[in-house]
Amino acid sequence: MIKPKITRTYGPIHFDDLDPHRFEDLIRQLIYDYKDWQSIEATGRSGSDDGFDVRAYERVAVVTPLENENNEEVEEVHPMEGNLWMIQGKREKEIGPKKIKTILLDIDPKNPPYGYILAVSTNFSKKSYDVFREELRKKEVMEFYLWGKAELEDMLHLPKNDRILFTFFGISLVSKRRTRTTELRSAISVKNKLFRTIGKGYQFSQSSILARDLKDTNYPYKSKYSDFKTNPRWKEYVAYGHHPLGLWCHSYEYFAYIDTEKKEWDFTREVNLVHRQRENKDERQKAFEKKILVKDVWDFFPRKNQGYFVIDCLIKYSDIEIIDDKGDVNYNFPHIYVDFVGHMGPFAVCINILKVNNKEIDLTKDYKRINVFPKKFKKEKFGKIYKEKKILLNAESQKEFQEYRLDAIYEIDEKYDFLNTRDVIQILNKGTETEEEFIQITHKFKANTKIHIEQSLEPFRTKRNIELQLGRTSTDNEEINIYEFKRISKWELEKNKES
């Protein structure tokens, strides 16, 4: 399975990239809608700010009558006056409790402002917050706020401040969200169309698809590309299932040798077993001939070691731009247009899987690849062909053989010990329509009955066949002689004679 990667959606904002005056400008922009201001003055820009980077007056309720309800004369508040706020910005890497006390000395305790905001490009400790609160209470400041790096980032991530974030840092989260929404809509549309085109869930059967490179303009002429064989611009794959992020495809499947006990394995790239609909006769014939040669090696591995090396790859829904569900006369199945990237082509990720006895084996680091398959494959000759000697099965075992439910001969009295790997012998089907059936021994060995049954692909059937051939129930610790085999046709025997 594919392991999810944990990523950060947004990186940290680098306040240190701003010069001190630009940092003051940022703070001034952030406070504009923080209160109902009557006026805001950028006093820090003048160079002589008396401790004020920004001075602001908060609007207050205006008493309009000149007399109160007791007919006493009152002073009318000037409409341009209000609660005074002092705002300071400090672009520094570190500010501790001692530094905060120093900064707050700018506040005149005899004439303190109504409100105070200290904005700094670093984070604060709990002690710093406590000192800040304690000092301002002593100076009788009515409202006060300490904005550290975390608070500033939170404010800049608000949609209403997206313009400020873009102005000072070139980042627009609103546009990112819009882009992300568009991407999601597109991916969902692609997924739903694939569901309709090739199915989903239990309705999904393996289906050929043609992955095509968006950049290609020469389809269907392969000759236009001198490197098409190693760098194809379109290729047929077999889609077999859906992942939450995309479409799973069989890319390659090779014959493999797997020993789960010794943690050893090998495979050959000689022939790809993934069946493709669109292959010309020459390609199909060459693949068939190669498969015979490779299988002639693979068949003679112990059955428990016969496996497959599978490479499955994922095409992400979000990477698919267009789906042509009809295809064309050359490839009469869905075409999927993707921007091919490097050696991965249309795929976002590929996984390697070992399969043996219908089980998937994780190819962990402790597995060691060894040399089992030859570099060159050739047709091996049969061993000894026995004409006089035959294997006689009892009626029940003979039925199992006829119905292709028997793939090994079992005995304990050494009566077939003369047989060796690659030898051919006849199964005597006396009284049946086909009296001549030939088998070739692929592997010969001794094993503990209980262990052999437990390690087999179908334990129940293996146990039954052992008991049918022995004519009794086997004991757990009993050793048994096993002759794994494959069937040989008369045509193959005749061809062997000719060679």
Distance between the termini: 48 Å
Number of strands: 20
Number of domains: 3
Would you identify the regions where 5 or more consecutive residues have pLDDT less than 50?
Answer: 1-8, 63-67
Topology:
Elements: H1 20-31, E1 37-41, E2 54-58, E3 83-90, H2 97-103, E4 115-120, H3 126-138, E5 143-147, H4 149-156, H5 162-169, H6 173-198, E6 207-213, E7 234-243, E8 246-259, E9 264-267, H7 281-298, E10 306-316, E11 320-324, E12 335-338, E13 349-356, E14 359-361, E15 368-369, E16 385-392, H8 395-402, E17 408-411, E18 424-428, E19 436-448, H9 449-455, H10 459-470, E20 479-488, H11 490-498
Parallel strand pairs: 3-4, 4-5, 6-12, 9-15, 16-18
Antiparallel strand pairs: 1-2, 2-3, 6-7, 7-8, 8-9, 8-10, 10-13, 11-12, 13-14, 17-20, 18-19, 19-20
Describe, in plain words, how this protein is organized in 3D:
The chain is of the alpha+beta class. The chain folds into 3 domains: 15-62 and 76-171, Dna-directed Rna Polymerases I, Ii, And Iii 27 Kd Polypeptide, Chain: A, domain 1; 188-369, no CATH class; 385-498, Archaeosine Trna-guanine Transglycosylase, Chain: A, domain 4. The protein is 26% helix and 27% strand. The chain has 11 helices and 20 strands. The chain has helices spanning 20-31, 97-103, 126-138, 149-156, 162-169, 173-198, 281-298, 395-402, 449-455, 459-470, 490-498; strands spanning 37-41, 54-58, 83-90, 115-120, 143-147, 207-213, 234-243, 246-259, 264-267, 306-316, 320-324, 335-338, 349-356, 359-361, 368-369, 385-392, 408-411, 424-428, 436-448, 479-488. The strands form 3 sheets. Strands 6, 7, 8, 9, 10, 11, 12, 13, 14 and 15 form a 10-stranded mixed beta sheet that branches. A hairpin with a 7-residue loop joins strand 18 (424-428) and strand 19. Helix 2 (97-103) runs parallel beside helix 3 (126-138) and helix 9 packs antiparallel against helix 10. The protein starts with 19 loop residues before the first helix and ends with a helix.
